[in-house]
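Hi support team,

I'm opening this ticket because the web form for multi-chain structure prediction keeps timing out on my end. I have pasted the exact lines I submitted so you can reproduce it. The total is 387 residues across two entries, so I didn't expect it to be a heavy job. Is there a limit I'm missing, or should I split the entries? Thanks in advance, R.K.
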Amino acid sequence: MLDLIIVGSSASGASAGIWAARRNLNFKIIALDTEGEVALSGEVSNYPGIIETNGFDLAKKFKEHLDYYKANIQIDSEVKEIKKEGDIFIVSGVQLGKNFEEKSKTVILATGSKPKHLNVPGEKEFYHKGVSYCTVCDGPLFKDKVVATIGGGNSALESALMLSALAKKVYLINKNPKFKGEEMLIEKIKKMPNVEIINGALAQEIKGGNFVEKLIYKDKSGELNELSIDGIFVHIGMLPNGQMAPQNVKKNDLGEIEINTKCETSLSGFFAAGDVANVPYKQIAIATGQGACAALSAISYLNSH
Amino acid sequence: MTQQKKIKIYSTPSCVYCKMAKEFFNQNNIQFENVDVSANHEAAEEMIKKSGQMGVPVIEIDGQMVIGFDKERIVELLDLKK
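Hello R.K., no limit was hit. The queue was backed up. Here is the completed structure from your submission:
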C-alpha cells in the first residue's frame, strides 16, 4: 500500500514529490507528462533564483530534481477517477490505452488547469486551422501574417510579445478596459509598432473557409467590428482539472478544489495544490510552494493515522 | 531485422510537444527527419496540405499522419512495447 499518490507532475506535483522523497515516503506520481502547463509558458522571469528561463527548461529542472531522488513516476497516465473506500484511496485511469488502478493512504491532487475556451461560434471548427491556445507551440507558423491574441493577463501579453517579433501585425484584444498582467510586459508591448491594443472588446465569432479569415468582436460601445486575420491565439485564463476528484470534495463555483492554508480539502487524507485549487493567484512560484505544503500536510496526516 | 519506418516530424523550435516527441524518439533510438516549418515555408505548406491543419507537431510515419504528440498512436504505429 502506497503512503501517497501525487496526481500531476508539473510545478506543484514535482514539488510535492521532492518533499515526499526526502521524507522517504512510499509514494508514486501519476501524470500525463512531466511538463504540464509550465512547459508551455514562454519566457519565465519571475521564478525566484532564476533571472530568466523558459517554461520548458524550468519543467525539465523540476523533473531532474525528482530523478535525483529516484521518484517513482508513472507518465502517459490519465487519472479518470479517485474514490475513497474506508480509509483507502483508489486512483484509476488509463495509460496508453490500458486501464490502471492504484491504492494509497493519501492523495495530493496537483493536476493544474487547462486553457479556457472562448465558446464562440467557429472556435471549435477552426481549432488548429487558425485557432490556437499555445502561442509558444504554433506562433512561428504565422510568420509575416496578421494575428490576434485574445486575453488580458500575462499569458496574453507574452503571446502578443512573441507574435510581434514574428507576425506582420498583432491585434491584442482584451475584454476589460485595462490589462491584468504585469506592468513590465504592458510597457514592452506598447513599444511594439506592429501591435494594436483593443481594450473593451469581446470576441463574438470566428469565420473563415478552410482556415481562419475573420474575427468578429463587440467593442465597448456595443458595435460589431470585423478583423481580417490569419490566426487567433486564445489566452483568456484557465479551467481547473479537478473533474477526477472524489465527489464529496468541496469545490467552488469555478470548479477549483477548496483548500485551507494546509492544502487540506474537505475530505480527510485528500489534499490539493497549485492551479487546481482555489489559490487566488496562479503562478509557478506559488504552485511549487503549494506542492511542498500539501506534501508536509500529507506527512502530518500519515503520522497521526 | 525489421527496417525502421520512415519518420518525419514537422516542428517549430519553440514548440514544447515537438521537443517532447523528438526526445521520445531519441530515447527509443528511433531515427527521424526534423523539418522546421517556421524556417521553411514550403515545408509548412506541405504539412498543412498533408494534415489539413496548422498545429505542430505533425508526425508522418510511413505516410500515416499523427497530429500532435499522440504517444499512444505513435507507439501503435511503431509497434513499440511499453
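A quick check on our side: Chain A touches chain B through 26 residues (CB under 8 Å). Let us know if the file doesn't open in your viewer.
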